[in-house]
Amino acid sequence: MTTGEQNDPWRDVKIERIEQLTPRIKSVFxxxxxxxxxxxxxxxxVRLTAPDGYAAQRSYSLASVPGADxxxxxxEKLDDGEVSPFFHDIAEAGESIEVRGxxxxxxxxxxxxxxPLLLIAGGSGIAPLMAMVRAWAADLTxxxxxxVATVEVPQVPMPVLLVCSARTPxxxxxxxxxxxxxxxxxxxxxxxxxxxxxxPRPTDLGRRLDAAAIANVLGRxxxxxxxxxxxxxxxxxxxxxxxxxxxxxxxARIKTERYGGA
Length: 262
Known about the structure:
Helix content is about 25%, strand content about 30%. It is of the alpha/beta class and about 260 residues long.
C-alpha cells in the first residue's frame, strides 16, 4: 500500500442498486459523486466491519465511465471469500459500506493517451477495461455533441480490440453492451473466448488464450497496439503477457493487473 492510499480517508457510501451480471458476478452501484474525477482503470478499497470489530477489505476496480452519477463495481462470488459473499447474499440497496479511493496511477488510460488499444480480460478482470472502453466511446460522443450541426467533422478512428475470456458464454460480463457497441462502431472489435463451451460466434474462440490464440487474434485485427492492458487471475495474466511478447508486442507497452486465484 502506498503512502497516498494510507492517507486517503475511508468514507461511508450507500449502495444505490445491485444487479446480477452473470451467474457468479454482480454489479454493485455506489452513490459516489465525489469519484467523478477518477481515471479509467483505477480501483477503490472496500472495508466491511463485523459487530465484534473484525474488519476485512478488498480492492475492486471501477467499471463505470469517469463522470458517471454512480460508480459500478464488479464483484465475483468466491465461496471462501470474506467480502464477496456479503454482496451476493446479504447486501441490499440503501445500505452503507466503507470505501476508500479512487486509487492507482499505473493501470490507467484516457482518450488523450491514444491508440490503437488492446484490452484482454479474464472473467471479472474486465471491470477496469470496461471503464476504458466506456471512456473511449464517451469521448467521441462528447466531441460530436460539441460540434455545430452544419460543420462536417471527420471521425478519426482509434481502433480498440477487447478480448474477454470466460468459461461459458453466460459467464461473459457485459456481452450485450459490447455486441451493441461493435455493431455501432467499425473501429471497435470484441472477441469472446470461452474455455468450457463452444464459442458464441464464428469470430470468437473456443480455447484458452495461449500464444497461438493470441497470434491468431492479433493477425485478424491487423493493428499494432500502442497500449496493451491485461487484467485477470494470476495465471491468466502471466500466460497472456508471455503470449503477447511471443507475438512481437514490446513488453514496455504491456500493463498488467492481477488478482489471486488460478
